[in-house]
Design brief:
Radius of gyration: 17 Å
CATH topology: Creatine Amidinohydrolase
CATH architecture: Alpha-Beta Complex
Structural class: alpha+beta
CATH class: Alpha Beta
CATH superfamily: Creatinase/methionine aminopeptidase superfamily
Distance between the termini: 30 Å
Number of domains: 1
Strand content: 25-35%
Largest sheet: 5 strands, antiparallel
Length: 249
């Protein structure tokens, strides 16, 4: 069931989202060659706990860290490790969630480490643009799939492919709530969006083809063709006239 949040719930989600944004700010400043993904994960947990919140991902379905940190061809759910050392040219997707007084914020962003290639820069720009192309249609009265369709339309217009296996979702008291929100599909399908709905919109876009596979650790997902992948996500509130980004400072 898709829930509409009360004003009190929305305020708690704004706080949770701000905490996630604080963690992203810290990560963006810390990413550089020589830093390990474990160090970034520890930084995320430190920021979240310093704000009287709890990492959403830690021990979620057995996940062993506070952030998902995925590098280059890794699409999502990369496990932080002291052996994963960032180098110049890497693109680093960091997915962060925080629980504040029972409510979640959830946001992912892909960062450049040092100097990255021109095609990597364009992939990051294009994936972020795909997110906001979908968000243009996030408002009361539109259909859920209007968001999905315009994410796909933008990504494919730039020559990229859209991952099918992982989708956006409702967010609130649970990290993953109804509805599921694909990043592809036909417009004018699915539920009507209504003010008070809170959603996590998160395109995962590949430089090559859309096929992915999960590695033996049961979490890390990579592109089958080893092409670069980027991931951008915001938690939002649907309003009558549009949307409000909750995972921002």
């Amino acid at each position: 069931m898709v829930t509409r949040k009360s004003s009190r719930e929305i305020e708690l989600m704004r706080i949770a989202g701000r905490i996630v944004a604080l963690a992203h700010k810290a990560v963006s400043e810390a990413i550089k060659p020589g830093v390990t993904t474990k160090q970034l994960d520890e930084l995320v947990e430190k920021v979240i706990r310093s704000e009287d919140a709890i990492p959403s991902f830690l021990n979620y379905s057995g996940y062993p860290a506070s952030a998902c940190i995925s590098i280059n061809e890794e699409v999502v759910h990369g496990i932080p490790s002291p052996r994963r050392v960032l180098k110049s040219g890497d693109i680093v997707s960091v997915d962060i969630g925080a629980i504040y007084k029972g409510y979640h914020g959830d946001s992912a962003w892909t960062y450049a480490c040092g100097e990255i290639s021109e095609e990597a820069k364009k992939l990051l720009e294009g994936t972020e643009a795909s997110l906001f192309a979908g968000l243009e249609f996030a408002k009361g009265g539109n259909h859920l799939s209007d968001i999905s369709h315009h994410i796909q339309k933008k990504a494919e217009s730039l020559g990229y492919s859209v991952v099918r296996e992982f989708v956006g979702h409702g967010v609130g008291k649970e990290l993953h709530e109804d509805p599921q929100i694909p990043n592809y599909g036909l417009p004018h399908r699915g539920i009507l969006l209504k003010p008070g709905m809170t959603l996590a919109i998160e395109p995962m876009i590949n430089l090559g083809n859309k096929e992915v596979k999960v590695l033996k650790d049961g979490w890390t997902t990579i592109t089958r063709d080893k092409s670069l992948s980027a991931h951008f996500e915001h938690s939002i509130l649907i309003t009558k006239d549009g949307y409000e980004i909750l995972t921002t400072l």
